[in-house]
């Protein structure tokens, strides 16, 4: 197995060796570390609690993990370009409410309504990307403003009312168990992850995204239309955020305006936990789809395990913050170690 | 005239005055003593929140945990009075200390690891908020002392709320810090160009830690004032500070890359946000639209700042 790492920053022989099983560097990759941690914690929780490895808990775990993975992906595709998208939560909720509105008030069949919701996600993502590119400002401040605008507009238009009369398909999809354990939501997340891997490794568009993130000037000189790429990344982020919210609708059985918290802020922590744990650089140019996936799974597992250990739900959030802190510290130490090994 | 036009506070001042005249012309009750009192109450707390973020913007970073620090200080303030029976001033000092320690925690990790402030403060946001919820179990503290409640609810000299006093002191001290004290100049220097600052003998890590500690102090002060104003220690205090904390400094012409902020213009930024929010209420416009207006204000302000930047760059080129 080869760790899914894609990098355009230093295409020399040394980095190419990184990530191959057997090479000592593989044991220092984020993905390997995450795998070890996942197995370790699964063993601990399995021994310490009775319910952790039960079929029902594994099913719930997969369902929650799928959402966290997707939130991570929707942030990751923008981080690749060196930007951020604080509005993922707001866009997601807008897309889900759009879908609910199309079904309940307009009476459109659900497959078309889903497409409509995702299209709104793409449009809102386009607005972000366009504003970032046109103004030349950092995406932090643009998406901070747009998260307020999108969420406020959505609350204004929906009067903060939920859409609860959705077709039974949604909740059935959320409750469906494949072989008694696997949730179809997790399958959706895996398929999206595979598509992203294919995009970043084998398509010109994916390579251009990485190039635009690593060194925008160099990419522009070699013929990449950096502005267009950044807009596309933001649109992709919007679509993924919309899809995430639709999965959440399937899980809850209703489209609720508060499902991502005030202004969609509740998504911010999972959105950064996955990519940062997985080794995606915040400065752009490097992406690890598998790392984001494993990072989100680890976070979900820890939350679930801590709850089963009856640590108290209020402590879990503090634990996740500490985890993020430890993760960046370990990553820092790993990088220093690698850099020293390469030089000496 | 040219220098007036270039000053950071000039644009926001014009907007403030025009907005006041415009709104007062349509709705004279805007200038009633009660309304002025409500307006000043909002301004005094929001000013502290804005300063807390402004100090960090000055150093070229961002602090996502402003609200979480404020919330933690607020519930500790109320909790120490209710559970331990401490007198108000002692509880306030201890809560401020918590804010300083929390800010120092941020600054220490940022300076020590060199990891972006965004990630560190996102992690600490979660830690502080988690501590807050773990202590309160999401239930408010009701045992706020009567003297504190009185401080938050009464006024002097007509419509001036007492809460304006801590905000005014913070304003004077922040202005003095950034414009007169070596530490303030160091903060701006590090924000402008950390490398150049280091070469000229400024200790960058120490400056970063000091800036974050001050930011924590101001956030804690805002939290304490909010407890006095709301009369209870709500665990949700601080949840909605993020947008606001960026809006006011940015309207005041702060450069997000660091090195340039204006204390006076930030206060005007706070005033603009408060006046517009108040106007939406007076004209019976949907309160849900406040978020949209806040977001639009940020976009408008960064747009204007950017335009000024481009203009300055062009005029420099001509010379």
UniProtKB/TrEMBL annotation, chain B:
Membrane topology category: Multi-pass membrane protein
Keywords of this entry: Cell membrane, Membrane, Transmembrane, Transmembrane helix
Source taxon at top rank: Bacteria
InterPro entries: ABC_transp_permease
Pfam families given in the database record: BPD_transp_2
Signal sequence extent: none
Transmembrane regions: 7-26, 38-59, 66-84, 90-110, 117-136, 156-178, 208-229, 241-257, 264-282, 288-307
Localisation: Cell membrane
The UniProt record lists the keyword Ubl conjugation: no
Protein name: Ribose transport system permease protein
Organism name: Kaistia dalseonensis
